Amino acid sequence: MKPARILILFSLACGMAGLLACGTIYFLINKKHTWIPEKLVELARQPDLLENPTAKRCGECHEAIFKAWEKSRHARAWISETYIKDSENRSKEKCLPCHIPRAVKAGSKPEPRLTQRDEGVFCIPCHMADGKMNGPYALYSPPHPTRQNDAYRKAVFCGSCHEKTYKEWQAAGHESTCQKCHMPRAEGRLVQNPVLKYFHAPKEVADHGFPHGAVGAGEIGLSVDIKPDRVRVVLLNDTVPHHVPTADNGDPRLYLTVEQFDTAGEKLDRVREILAPQQETALMYKKEVAFTYPVERGARRVSVRLEYKPAWSTEKTEVHNKSFTVDF
Amino acid sequence: MKTACRVLSAVVLMILAFIPNVAGAKDFVVKPPPASLDKFYPPQSKEPKWVQQMHKLSGSFGGVFVNMREGDWENAEKLAGQFVEAYKETSEMVPEWEEYFDLDAAKNFAETVKTRDGEKIGKAAGPVGKTCGKCHGDHEVSVWAKYHWPSFHEVKVIDPMDDKEVGFDKYMGSLSGAFKGVTVNFKEGQNDRAHKAARTFKTKYTELKSTCSKCHTTGDVQRFYVGEPVMAALSGLVDELGKDKPDPGTVWKNVGIVGKEGCKHCHLVHRPASFIKERWEEK
User: Which residues of chain A does B219 touch, with a Cβ-Cβ cutoff of 8 Å?
Assistant: First the structure.
C-alpha cells in the first residue's frame, strides 16, 4: 500500500474517531449524563465557580447572558445614581435586601450581602443555592453542578423582591408571567465558549437584560370627550397585567397634562395629574380612570399630553399628545 | 383692721399665686448635643450605638429591681454587675458629659445589691438614678431632635406642577398657599379660582405620598396621614367646587377633614423637632 494512501486512511479513521468521540460526549452530556463516571466529572469541575464568582467570571462561558445582564437595571442596582440619592447614600436599610441580595428564593425576601456589592443583582444571588447552579433546565454542565428548579419560570421568584408588582399581577389574574414579558426567550445557546458551546444542544435562552416593557400608545389607551361644559379624559391600562407604572419603592410616573387655549393661543388653564405607585394613583390593569375638567370660557383648543418617566431617570417620553378643537 | 386683713389676704393670695411658678419655674434651654456624640449615630455609625447603650443601662438597672421583686438574687447581682460595667463604658463615650456620671455611686449600688436588703438597695439606687435623670433632663430632647428626626430642610421635592426640584420648606409654603387659595377665594365667592386652587392643592398634597414614603417605609403611616379619608375629602372638595353652586357645608367639611386629619396630624408629630433644628441652624 502506498504511504499516501495509508496517510489518507489514517486521517479518515482519526476523523471518524473524533466525530464519534464528540457525538458520544454530546449524547452523554445532553441525554445520559448519569453514565459519566463521577471521577471524570470531578476532573472537569472548576471549584472557584462555587465560591461566589463575579458576573464576569460566569460570563467567560455564559457570554451572551453576561452581556445582556451588564446592560440591565439589575446590574445597576447598587451603583445607580438615582438609588444612591434616594437611599441617602445607600444608608436606608430597607433597600439593601433587594439591591444587594445574598440569595434570592421564591416567596421570601432575601437577606442583604456584605460582598461584591457593586454587582447589584447578579448571577450568584439568583442561581446559586446548596452548592449548585440552579436554573429552569435540567442539564449537565461539567464545570459546576446544576439543579433544575421550576421556580425560575414562575412569577413568585421575581415577587420575592418585586412584591407590590407581584401582588398587582396576581390581582390582574393574567396568565402571563413576569418572565414571559421581562425575560423573553429566544433560540440560542447557554454558553458561548468556543469549544463547550457545541456540547450543549441549542435551547430557548431567556433575555437577562430584563427588558422594561413598553409604555406607549399601544399600552395605555387615551380617550377624550369634550362637551360644551366639560372635558373628560379617560385613561386605560389595556395590556399590561400590573399597575402602570409599577415599583415597590422607586418613583416612576405618568404625567397627564391637560391645557386649554383661547383663539389667540393664550393658555387659559393647565392641570396636571400624577399617576404613580407611591401616590397610589398608578393605572390598574383594565380599569378606566377618568378625569373631568370644566371648559374655560373662551376656550377654543384643548391639548392632552401623557408622558412617562421611569424611576431611574428624569427624562420623560411621550405616550400621547393630542389636540382638540372646542367648537360648540 | 378690715383694711389690714384685706391687704394681708391680697398679699397671701399673691404669694400663693406665685408659689407654683416659683417652685416649678425652670429655664429649659435646648442646646445642640456635643459633636462627639455624632460618632454614635448614623451616618457616622452604622447603628444608633448611643441609644443602644441607653437600653443596656436601663435594661440592667431596671432588671435588678425586676429580679429583686421575684426573689431572684443571683440574677439581680449579675445585672447589677453588668450595670456598673455599662455605666463606666457610657461615662467614657462622650467626654463633655463625663461629669454627669458618679462611678462610686454606681459601684456602691452594685455592692449594696449583694446585701439583698431591699431598703438599702433602694437608698443606694437613688444617687445613681439622679445622675441619669439630670443628664436626661438636660439633653434628651436635643438628642432626639438631632438624631431621631430627619432634617426636613434636606428633603427635596419635585413640584408636580412644574417639575422643578425645591426644598421641603419652600414646597410646604407653596402647598399652604394653594390651600389658602381655596379658602380665601371661596369666602369671596370666587368659585372658579377656588376650584383651580383646590385642584393644584390636591396634586401637590398627593405628591407628599411619594416624598414621605422615602422615610416612612411602611404603608401604615402613609395610609394614616395621606390615607383614604383625606384623599376622599380632597376629591370631594375638588368635585364640590367644580359644581355650578357649591354647597358651603360640603366645602368646609372637606376643608376641615384635610386640615385636621391631614395637615395637623403630621405637623403635631414633626414640627416640634423641626422648630428646634431650625433655631439651631439660625445664624
Answer: none
